[in-house]
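Final report, Chapter 2: Outcomes

The project's central promise was a pipeline that accepts a single protein chain and returns its three-dimensional structure in a standardized token representation, suitable for archiving and comparison. That pipeline is now operational. To close this chapter, we reproduce one record exactly as it appears in the project archive, with the input sequence first and the structure output second.
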Amino acid sequence: MDRFTRTKKQEQLLDWVGDLADRFAERADEVDREGAFPFENFRDLKESGYLALTIPEKYGGKEISLYDFLLLQERLGQGDASTSLAVGWHLGIFMDLADRREWDENTFQRMCREIVESKVLVNRAATEPATGSPTRGGKPETTAKQDGNQWILNGRKTFTTMAPGLDYALVTATLDGTDDVGGFLVPCSSEGVRIENTWDTLGMRGTRSDDLIMDNVVLSDEAMVEKHESDNKKRAPMGWLLHIPACYLGVAAAARNFAVRFAKEYKPNSLPGPIAEVPHVQQKIGEMELELLKARTLMYSTAERWDSDPEGRDSMQPDLAAVKTVATNAAVSVVDLAMRLVGGKSISHSMPLERYYRDVRAGIHNPPNDDITISVLAKAALEEAAP
């Protein structure tokens, strides 16, 4: 039993997702090698009901807590990191929407029903070549122009995770003639929507975070589901983004597990027993355990606070940012230690460690970046110390 599993329900959830993760692990090398979207994995996720885990119960979903969400995503990350990170965006978006209730309720209900009944897949499309990550505050160059009771969208979005498998994209666009930004629910089958295969990366190759291009895409007036005015830059903390560190800690755990098994089984003829008996090997195993324990303790204690104290969430941005930075850097360290333990064999394509190494480094570049975290923590400390 995992030390962070607290209830019988969580044990059952982990057993259930463990079967999926083990299945995905068998396909992970091929997904990585081909740089292909893992359609087979997503068929399994859809059939299992995974896409509806964060949908409210009243609309047919499971409405799981943030803590449970992270447990499942971490375990899925042990099987295939690309699949875990990708589906985490879909699940997290609807956890966030259910919390904030900023959409028209009829639209939200319709989308929830589509996810539960038709297994549709949704992600945001916000990053652009000129603006970089939306967390940096850049104004979208994608434009939305109103034409009677319709909107016409034009623009290019980068890093659109799951692009080949998406049914809907939540596209941010600057409203023509204003400094305001709208969020548009765009069916990916719409005329004028196309994908450009730009995703050719070192790691997380199966996320297929390709470019989404909109060329005079005509949408109904109701397609604008969000509006952010130019003077409303600050958003509430988003606990659901902890799915990012959960995924990368899953990769680190997979690397740790592989290295420990290797140490117990590998018996060079220069030693009387397996290398697990060698002190410097035990040192590396202990260091891996310490990194994982520190990061997981911070992540799950933060998630527990989020779930148990909704009134206190507004003050949790520094904690959430700290979890991401601590966890992703810990994950990089754990994979590095695992490779040092295994030695030269660890860089062979016949072993999963080199894939873990490439995948886990992507976490450094997911939001928030380390410099933003440090800035957030510094500002919080200065405000706390203010006279």
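Archive annotation: The first strand starts at residue 122 and ends at 125.
This record, like all others produced under the grant, will remain available to the consortium after the project formally closes.
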